[in-house]
Amino acid sequence: MRPVHRQILLAVAIxxxxxxxxxxxxxxxxxxxxxxxxxxxxxxxxxxxxxxxQFFTTFDDANxxxxxxxxxxxxEAVWG
Length: 80
Known about the structure:
Elements: H1 3-22, H2 34-37, H3 49-57, H4 66-79
Helix pairs in contact: 3-4
């Protein structure tokens, strides 16, 4: 087997094993502070210009995490 084919096969195997390991988490519910931070957050309901501006100009509790808030809003927009 050529080294390139071996690397591709190894990458595919790692991807499959990792996917199987996390498969049961796909239907999981919110945990920990998600119930207080994610569910009631109105910023996560829309990706309009006002919300996008607030993602990058406001703090999430005491932390500045615009990528986290943006990713949660994208997940909400795609999967609800």
